[in-house]
Every structure is written in structure tokens, then in C-alpha cells.
Amino acid sequence: MSQVTEYSEKVMDHFTNPRNMGEIEDASGVGTVGNAKCGDIMRMYLDIDENGIVRDVKFKTFGCGAAVATSSMATELVKGKSVNEALKVTNKAVMEALDGLPPVKIHCSLLAEQAIHAALWDYAEKNGITIEGLKPPVNDIDETEEFYQMQGE
Amino acid sequence: MDRFIYMDNAATTKVAPEVLEAMLPFFTEEYGNPSSAYAFSGKIAKKVAEARRTIADALNACEKEIFFTGGGSESDNWAIKGVADALKDKGNHIITTKIEHHAVLHTCEFLEKHGYEVTYLPVDENGLVSLNDVEAAIRPTTILISVMFANNEIGTIEPIKEIGEIAHKHGIYFHTDAVQAFGHVPIDVDELNIDMLSSSAHKINGPKGIGFLYIRKGTKLSNLIHGGGQESGKRAGTTNAAGIIGYAKAVELALKDMEETTKYESELRDRLIKRVLEEIPYTRVNGDLNKRLSNNANFCFRFVEGESLLILLDQKGIMGSSGSARTSGSLDPSHVLLAIGLPHEIAHGSLRLTISKETTQEEIDYVVDSLKQIIDRLRSMSPLYEDFVKKNK
Asked: Which residues of B fall within a CB distance of 8 Å from A41?
């Protein structure tokens, strides 16, 4: 199966020229989701101002072309939005904005949605507030460090 | 300038011009069915017989021991299902390895659903099967041992002669999937104690859709494809004269230049491996460095995922493959990389580059230079790399 021919032009564009890639120092909220075992990890940084507006957003992603593209598109969709609006950015919205994803890649868009939620959760915790409808993120285990310690690196 | 650097020769190869030329008449002027009675077809049957001899000679086998099939997967299916059926009164146990091609693994899984028992032997960190493990796995009910000659992902060459010896000591048939090895390394079926050997033409500059199963005289196995009396009544289907003749030409070419090609490819492969390991940090090479196919290099780049890597390489005109789950549509990365003990995350960052005698040193250098940029870029995007850097500050 060729990935390149199955991806839409928009997916390829967001993969090749990702928007908002990077880190935010002292971010209002940071969320990391996914696991290395399955091959996708997304991290979302949110800079939220005193009015609860997402002033800036950055991402870092370990994963396939669709994982990078969905992260990139998700950042575009939450930028400038209020916290409550950002919470309503669904995986479906991310997919639609990318002109669709191959069926095996739909989980990437779910991960992007979860990454936003995880960053919002972190923001809420740091500020001692409750965002209605937001659930706590799930953490995963990393087996890699153990392997490299075993190899003596 | 648009580059076109094909480094996926373990997936398939280009048909050699000599092969195409040898095949062409059998599509147009000499289209007769070799099984027909008239002289027009007899002439073609003779050419097919010559081709069969060329291939038999390449293995130190007899013409009557070469059975043409539709390719490597069919040959693997036939060898395993054929023996399983023919010897079902003798036993129901098969020994194979965890790193076989899916044509072997999925065939074994199919048989498991039908009452057969299969032992999947582990391999060491370089992908080598242990002879002690082979011997220890043998039961009174074992009817077949099937171990691949060389692995398609990591290029490791298994101790075939020794495994065959163990099999024969216990009166068990030995089959080897030699799809990646035939035409690349010398194979003498007598010397290496092989009873059955699978092969495919398109891996050695021959056409797709043609392969063979070598079956040592006297080996009992049931037929897989039933129908007409072709291939001594053991494999039905109209003789693929063009394919067989093209295959024989490809074998002839491979054998003629084998030593030279191996030397040339090994030097380029070693340059590729050396430069990548030296110039790209947090990288490992997979597979045995000595017992290895001359055209295979397989790396894992930490903090990077394989599909992303392949797309960016493609944008630079470089074609390779990856054991990442994301390139196969499954959830798990390559079973071979997991079998050599790699964690999932590392296995996801794998890249296989398989060169050919047409690969140049300039191309190798271009690939390494491109890889450096791409890996840098993907790492700058990777949360795993970010964590690693922060942790080791």
C-alpha cells in the first residue's frame, strides 16, 4: 500500500509543511497522548490568555504522515478559540478539514482530539478550574528506556 | 534534478533487458501451448526443458526436481501444506521460525486451525536460529522443518546446511524459503541437505508471477493446484513458457556475475552502514553484519517513525521500505524486528534499503546526506526526542 497515493493533498501539505510545529516554554497547558508501542505520540502545547482564549498553540508528534498532519490541522483549528470552543474540536472536524483520511488512519484524528483535551486538562489543573465535559487523559508506559539500559547505552 | 534512487530490491527488481528479450518471442510468434502435440508447440516445450535444466544446474539438482509455480508464496504454501497432507498419518508437528515470510507463517497458522502443531523457533539479536533449539524442538511427530535461507527484512543468512543435517539425522524433511537468497548466494541442494526450496524470479531481475519449488526426488508431498498434467502431474496450469524462459535467463545472468556482484554490493552496503552509523546518532543496524545478504542494510533510527521517514525519502526520490506498523496497516511493527528483541517504538523507526549492482557510490552518498537531513527534521518534531534531550541535559 502506498501512503503517498492514499493521502489527500491537504494531508500531504500538512505533513510536508506542518503548521505550528515546536514547543511553548512555560505553556498554560501541555498534553501528551498515544503510545510508542502503537507508533504514535502527540504532544500539544497551549498558551491561553487571561480571557481563556488560545493565544498560541504548538505541537510535536512522533508518528506517521497522518499523525503529523492531524496534529498540524488540530493546532490550526484551536488557535484563537476559547477554551470551550477548543474542547469542541472533534476528530471528525480535523478529518474533514484534511479532506479525509484513509480508514486505517482514522485513529490519528482521534489522537489529535485527545491531545487537545489532555493539554486543556493540564491547563485546568494548573489553574484549579473545572472545564465542563472534559475527561482526564490516559497515560501510557514506555518500554524503550529499559531496552537501551539493557544494551548498555 | 529529479532523482530516482531505487533501494527496494528485496521487494522486487527490474527485469533485465536480456531477460525481456528472451521472453518476448513467447508472447507473439511462439505462443503455442507447450503441452500440445504439433511441432509448433514441441519447439517451445524444448525451450522450456532447456530452461528447466539451466535452473536445475544452478542448484546442482536434476531437471525432474524443478517444479514451476506462480511464485515464492505458492512454493511455500505447496511445500508446507503438501508435506502436512502427505505425512498426516506419520505426524502433525512442524518446526519453523518466528522470522519467516508471511507466506510460511500464515500457512502454518492455517494448518494450526486444522489440527497441526507448529513450533515457531526464536532467533538471537542478529536474527540467527540456534541449532540447539532446532534439535530440541523435534518430536516423534515432527514431519517438516522449514527455515528461510536469508531473511527478507534484515538480510541474515541462516545456518542452512547444519539445520538440514539435523533434519536428516532425524528423518525429517527440510524446506527452505530461498526467495531472497537464490541467485545471490551459491546454493547446492545436496551439500546443504535441502529437500525443498522455494524461489521467485522477480527478486533476481526476472519477471513477476513465476517461481519454482525444488523437490528432492522421493519426497512425499500432495499436490496444491489440481488440474491438467503439467509439471509431471504435480502442478496443474498451462505452462508459463515466457516466464520460465525469462527466469532461466535471469538465473544465468545472476550466476555469471554472482561473485563480482556480491563483492560490489557488499562494499557499497558497508559504506552505507558505516556512514549512517557514524554520522547519524542514536541509530542501530539490524541483522548479522557478517552472515548477511550483500544487498541488505536495515537500520533503526530512534525517536523517528518509519512511514514519515519513507514519505520524506520519497520526496527526495529515494525508495526504501520500513517495518513500521504504519506502513502495513497493522497495529504491530515487523514481526522480524520484534523477534530480534527490539521494543515496539524502536521497531517503528526502521528503514530497509536493498541495493543492486546498478546502485552507485554517488547514490549511497546522496542517500546518507538526505537521511541526515530527514532524521534531523523528524527528530526536531518528535516529543520522544525532546524528552530524551531534556533528560540528558
From this structure: 382-384
